[in-house]
Queue: 3 jobs
Job 1
Amino acid sequence: MGHPVPTIAALLCLLILLAGCGRPVVTNERAAESTDETTGETTSPNVESSPELEKAADAYEVYVADQMVLMDKHTKQFTDAVIAGDLERAKELYAPAREPWERIESIAAQLGDYDPEIDAREGDVPDDEWGGFHRIEKSLWVGGTTNGQEKYARKLAEDVDSLRGEIGGLELEPADLVIGSVELLNEVSAGKITGEEERYSHTDLYDIQANVEGSEAAFEELEPEIAEKDPMLVEDVEKGFEGVYKELEQYRQGDGWVSYEELAESDRRALSQKVDALAEPLSQAGQVLEKG
């Protein structure tokens, strides 16, 4: 009997092992796509390419890179506090360290294994693979201790620093900005509004504010091109952002936000409605920019 013919999958695995790299690098795959309800096929806005739109995508790449620099700095401060065993300081630094990540979460799906390693929630991955922010979060707020979190803190700091170094290879298309910003707002309205993201620390308002800021940053890069084709849509989107920020502002406390537990169900519903009111016109941006 001859030797079995290796499969393509086996050859790929061998190449990965020979390369010595177990984590997918940052890619330029779409962060999100929509599904055609008739055909079941995934689709994305067929945004017309132009020098102006390419420039907008390049500008957002710079925004993402800047946020990663900020995240690297703040995460190091947070993980240093965890490693030092300073519980109160670690709690204080947790939410601010996550804000830059939440601003660029619209492109998280393009970050390979970095997304689950940095941001997986309990139950998203097997327990023996669970690390990142939320594993530490649970220990700080539920366990009331930093004990046993040193290895997770070191790994988190390493992952964030590594991602910061790789993020320069990210190549975005104009459609990524539209899809990502809308998908992120939909996630806020459908999931984060329930408080599931920061289920132990209840720092959800930091995340929600940062998500909206990231969506706005993407829209602002595309705004000049959208305004040429549909100035009224730009006005509607801007009003939508203003509405969300105004709704959030009542929960501001100093430089941060009140605990999400302080929001009644009616408060959360009102916030969700404001986010939906923004996502609706924002979702039309792709149509406006589509090839005619």
Job 2
Amino acid sequence: MPTMSLPRRVFLAPALAVALGLGGCAPLITQSPGQGLSPVNAISQGEDKHLMLFGHDVVSYFTQGRHQMGQPAIKSVHKGVSFWFASAQHKALFDAAPEKYIPQFGGYCANGLAYAIPWGGDADTWRIVDGKLYIFGGKSSKEAFELDLAGNLKLAHQYWDSEVKDANAFFQRTKRTTYNKVPHYKTGAELAKMVEAAKK
């Protein structure tokens, strides 16, 4: 088996580390577009480097009462974030008043934000409260949040405004899940027990 010369190995090792590092940092960049709308629950797809909610149409929640996939051919870019729509009418509604349709907390799970954690957010689990769209990480997250809707909304907005908005989502969730949990932190198992108890 041929061996690689030392100078070539010395050059390739740092290049490989940089390539791996950049690949691992992709979510950090995708979810932090800046321009006043960060962090966001976004993915990179084709030319859309910050695609909100996996391409779901944020206007459909309001006009049709359901989640619906948008089309890449019908889109708007607002503050560096791409939004796909199911129809030209939805795009026009969004363009006239984007702040009305943008999900709260950048489209992250509202229940996570009650713990200062920007994480998750499934387009098919949602609720509109006082004309604002909230996304959840699944049925159990939504049910846990609704145990104290007013209290959790207050906490989520407080944490978003005081420390999550304009922060890097990865670093924020690492801080709040690893070494600096909020005083009222509860695990997923604890929340599930609370939800089950409330159903009895």
Job 3
Amino acid sequence: MLQKIYDSLLTLAYPQICQTCSNSVENSADGVVCRKCWQKTKIFSGNETLCAKCSAFLQEKPANFQTFCHQCDEHFYDAVIAVGLYENALAASVLHLKREPFVAKTLKNLFISAFENSPFQDATVIIPVPLSKKRSLERGFNQAEILAEILAKEFNLKTDKQSLARKIHTPMHRAAMDRRARELTVENAFEVTRPKLIKDERVLLVDDVFTSGATTSFCAKALKKKGADKVYVLTIARAI
């Protein structure tokens, strides 16, 4: 009841415009997106067919067997889980998270649920995908660290923010590049700085969005080279 009163007062005093459709956001828990846009967003439920390795969306109906897209065959991570597709509410929420270090309740609950329902329960450490020093200074925070902290607090898992580092600054806007070009920008970008803390660990690698998979693949390569047993990936959004 109090939340409804708060939301009503907030809407009147400080109207929030939906970052997707420009209508009013009437529930503070929904963040920068209205409820209708959340409803239009493809949130993975287990009733669709996804690539068993990288979670690429393949079709609306579930399959009775493991299906692979084969675009990720050479990637170094073991498996990827995403909340849903990079569209509508999830796309707007990811873009907002790159600007503000805050995760609204709706998104937070979906992210927690994605891990809870994943096969990653044997993970022993959470590692956020690191930013370069230049990007970190520009932004002031790492959005992957914000997400990692949510899981660490909820599931009492340890977080390691220092053992994986990005040693090469890479272009921010890589959407226009083809798959191979994106891979080349991050191929040698990551290094493990504390290998003793990585050896034999089952790593949960956390990031905000999974596009081509190049970034997480080369993170996983660096981690496994230094002895990580498994590298799982959990992300908010999976690009189409």
